[in-house]
Each structure stands twice: as C-alpha cells, then as structure tokens.
Design brief:
Elements: H1 5-19, H2 24-36, H3 38-69, H4 71-93, H5 111-123, H6 126-135, H7 147-182, H8 184-214
Helix pairs in contact: 1-7, 1-8, 2-3, 2-7, 3-4, 3-5, 3-6, 3-7, 4-6, 4-8, 7-8
Length: about 220
C-alpha cells in the first residue's frame, strides 16, 4: 500500500471533523437546500467537488517538489496544519460559536449558476486551501516514496468523506434545520463534539512534529 491504513483513517477522521465544522461551503449548501430544494443543493455540491479536485491537483503537483527540495518546509506545513485544526476546534467550542444549520435565505438560480457558485465558493474558501496545503501533508510519509500518489490518494479519501457527508446534509437539511430550531441544545452538542474531535487530532499531530524534526 502506498499509504498506510493509519494514514487513511487519520485523513478520514480529520475530513469528517472539518466537513462538520461550519464554513462557507457548508453554509452555502445548507442555504441552497433549504431555499431552493435538494436538487439545487446537490448541483451546488457538484461544483464544490470540482473545487476540491482543483485544489488537490495544484497542491500535490507542488508538494512533490517541496518535500524533496525543502524538508524543513514540510515540517512547517505539518505545524501549520496542527495549528489550524486547533483554531477550528476553538471556533466550534468557544461561547457563541456558530451552529451548523444557521443558513441565510437565498434567491433562486439556474443549475449552471448553482454549479458555478458551488465551485467559486469552494475555491475562495480558505479552509479548503489550507486543508490541501497544510493538513494532507500531515499524513504523507516521505519514507514510503511516491509522495504525489500519496497526496492524491489522501485527497481522494477527503473528497469521498466530504461528498458523502455533505450529500446527506443536503438531503436532510430542511428537516434538520426545523429540528434544531425547536431544540437549540442539539446545535450546542454538535459544536462540542466537532470541536473535541478536531482538538484531539490537532494534539496528536502536534506530538508528531518534534519526533519528525529529530528524524
């Protein structure tokens, strides 16, 4: 295997924590689903997926060169990724953090515009950019070789997790938003679970950095 089972699982857990953290993509997809229906949400999700593919391709082509030529920069990416996960954990856990289903009402748009807006929203999403530049390198092991292939495989795991979870959220957005409105305490627990998950991964990754630096 080019990537280890531990790396695949770690990437899946991180991707799950991030996809459940409110951000531009999630808020846009939920808003579209509630405002214009599930079909609009799924079309928008297709544009989001294309944005992930674009970032994954650009990041992996560059990272293959970076890891070989500048090893210390690789460690910098790892440290930045751990810090960003800690930041996301704080955003979810801090008092007054945003809930997952607090969408804004949006006007109706054509299928083409929905797809483009999903793509643009993701391309302009700093969380997506940092994820590919700083988080995926956390799970790449240069000793296994084929760092580009590792990057694409790990990116594929992230995209698969993101699409499955987002599709489920798009399908159930209306019902879940109504339920959260009736029981606001559920939104609090969603933030707590997500923040704890991201924080735990951040701590585990941060503990690896000194060991990798000595190696």
């Amino acid at each position: 295997m080019v990537i280890s089972a531990a790396a695949a699982v770690g990437m899946a857990v991180t991707a799950l924590g991030m996809v459940l953290t409110p951000g531009p993509n999630m808020m846009y997809l939920v808003s579209r689903s509630i405002s214009q229906g599930r079909t609009a949400g799924m079309i928008s999700l297709g544009g989001t997926a294309m944005g992930f593919v674009a970032y994954m391709t650009m990041a992996n082509i560059g990272l293959a060169v970076v890891f070989v030529a500048v090893p210390w920069l690789y460690m910098g990416f790892k440290a930045a990724g751990a810090l960003y996960l800690a930041y996301l954990a704080w955003q979810a856990l801090k008092p007054g953090g945003r809930g997952l289903f607090e969408p804004q009402k949006l006007g109706r748009d054509s299928a083409g515009r929905l797809f483009r807006m999903g793509l643009i929203t993701n391309l302009l999403n700093p969380k997506a950019a940092i994820m590919y530049l700083a988080l995926i390198p956390q799970f790449i092991d240069p000793s296994r070789g084929h760092t580009t292939v590792q990057g694409f495989m790990l990116g594929g795991v992230q995209i698969a997790v993101s699409m499955v979870v987002n599709a489920a959220i798009v399908i159930g957005a209306g019902a879940v938003a109504s339920l959260i409105a009736r029981r606001p305490g559920w939104a609090v627990w969603q933030r707590r679970i997500t923040g704890t998950l991201l924080g735990a991964v951040a701590v585990l990754l941060a503990r690896e950095i000194p060991a990798r630096a000595r190696a």
